[in-house]
Amino acid sequence: MFKGNLLKFVSHGAWAFLILGVTACVDNDYDLTKDIDYTVTVGGDLSIPGSNTEAITLKKILDMDETSIVKADENGFYSLVKSTAPQQTDVKVDSILFNNEMFDSEGAETFLEMPQGMFDALPENEAIEYPVQREVTSVTAEKTDVTDELLAIDSAVTELPMDLEYRFLPDNDLQKIYLKAGYQIDFPDYVVISEAENTDKSLIEVRNGKSIFFKKDLMVNESGLNIPVMIRVLDFTNMPEGSGFTYPSKMKIDMELVSEGQIYFYKKDFVQNTNRHNIHFMRTPRLREGKIMNCKVKVQPEINIEMESIQIDNLPDFLSDEDVVVDLVDPKFYVTVTNSAPVDVNLNATITAHRKDGSSSIQVGDKHGVPVVIPKSVENYVICFHKQNTEVEGADQSIQLTDMDVLIEKIPQYISIDDIESNVPDRYYYVRPGRTYSVLTETRIDAPLTFGEKTNIVYRDTLDGWHEDLDKYDMKAATVTMDAVNAIPLNMKLDVQAIDVNGNEIPDIVATVDKSIAAGYMEQPTTTTITIQLTSQNGSISKLDGLLLIANATSPATNESQQLNENQTLTLTNVRVSVKGGVKIDLN
């Protein structure tokens, strides 16, 4: 509030002169203490000088408390700033598990019924070899309840155990049989295998992830023989027709294993004291319970992102008037995201500014020609929506919204982010099923108070404390002049209301202002001399205590790069009240 202490019209000596002039005309025979009217008229032009104001900073003019939504940065520049608390959304793709009920195996059976004569002809102490040439066994895993979040599979890293089982059948008469070193079992091209934890690597070797090679002779006895291996990778793109993944929810894995090599046995290992000499055994691949650890997939998990509304509260007075229009050069709306999920998230949403008299909205996302993608596996990733077509410092992604003005030009009560649709783009990602990931979102508005031409800010202040100087004087007109030294980058068009000691408008006093205060700069202020005419038909000027100044601040086109700063100043100097044609003074 500006206060000017107006000086008395004239000195006490002058008052004595006036009084002496009056008493000289009085007959000494009269009682001077009775019925004398001490009202006098002073002619001529009178001027009442006032005190200059100090340079008042914008910080003091705006008089904002610590809770104000308008904040000054470390250099004093003002921005409208408000943020929300982070909101968390969980993202999960269900586990893909395999159990024994899903497996079906087809083994290779060898049966040889040996007549007595053939048996008798066998050598006693030499190994009898039997060649295995491209013998095929197969195993199938079929799952019909794969999560419907899975759209397609390219490949999968698995922990899927397999036992290569060799065992004699009940009508077998041979007690031992041997798989000769060099025996080899080949897996299909779309499978990668490795030794299992309990594989004896001194006996077998996995070559190129595709074949099992026997380094030594292995014996199959009445207890059988199990060779454990691990299925590590499944390449779904190379699986034969009828195998692979079919959306929705069906997965079928067919594996054919091809064996080649030599099997041998000894005559002495047949069961003795029997007239039957059968050789009957089975080679069967058997899958065990396992799971997909990681996979390259197209996936569409449920992602229900929510963002808290930004409350535009604690506005300073100069932005609270209903006539305020804030044409900001480059308002910014930030979304800060931490996405621990291994998939990008595509966003479509509506940003809405809510006001008492309605709302206005901007739609963003690829559906509206403004793609918004949250990258996978990022922390504190900053997306900035703003008006200008420039890269914003500190933002990882800058998105231009040319109609950003509609959100903020009429200050809203709050800004909401609604109709959020979240999905994963149609591309392959590496996903670990069964793991829960999170997406954290935090919104923030940061609008530097750098104004465009449509800006209209309403600021109110008073020059008061004049009544004690004016209450004895009856005058019908007065002129107030002052010099406004302005280092604020806003033009200020003044409307003036005369006010009494209670701060109420005096309707009988008409006030007009001849010009506006010109915008200036901190390094180059402008000086504007303002004349305010006060007129009254019934002497109400004697009730005057001061002026209510209503400044409608606008931004000239040349100042679009000038941001409000708390150190910018406005100074009123040479404040003077002038009266023409004299005044009537009531000395009663």
Largest sheet composition? 9 strands, antiparallel
Please state the structural category: mainly beta
| Molecular shape | rod-shaped
Strand content: over 45%
Total helices: the number is 5
Our Rg estimate from Cα atoms comes to 47 Å
Please report the total strand number as a whole number. 42
Mean pLDDT equals 85
Terminal-residue CA separation? 33 Å
Helix content: under 10%
Give start-end ranges of low-pLDDT stretches: 1-41
Give the count of structural domains. 3
Assembly annotation? single chain
Annotation keywords:
588 residues, mainly beta, Jelly Rolls, 3 domains, 5 helices, 48% strand, rod-shaped, DUF4493 domain-containing protein
What does this protein look like?
The chain has 588 residues and is mainly beta. The chain folds into 3 domains: 2-19 and 40-66 and 454-586; 78-92 and 315-448, Jelly Rolls, CATH 2.60.120; 99-299, no CATH class. Strands 9, 11, 13, 14, 16, 17, 18, 20 and 21 form a 9-stranded antiparallel β-sheet that branches. Strands 8, 10, 12, 15, 19, 22, 23 and 32 form an 8-stranded antiparallel β-sheet that branches.
Summarize the entry for a quick read.
The chain is mainly β and 588 residues long.
Give the SSE layout.
Elements: E1 2-3, H1 12-23, E2 39-42, E3 46-49, E4 56-57, H2 58-62, E5 70-72, E6 78-83, E7 87-92, E8 97-98, E9 103-106, E10 108-113, H3 116-121, E11 128-143, E12 150-168, E13 177-179, E14 184-186, E15 191-195, E16 204-207, E17 211-214, E18 218-220, E19 225-235, E20 244-246, E21 250-265, E22 278-287, E23 290-299, E24 310-311, E25 332-339, E26 345-355, E27 358-364, E28 372-374, E29 378-386, E30 397-400, H4 405-408, E31 414-423, E32 429-431, E33 436-448, E34 457-464, H5 467-470, E35 473-474, E36 477-486, E37 491-499, E38 510-513, E39 526-535, E40 546-554, E41 569-579, E42 583-586
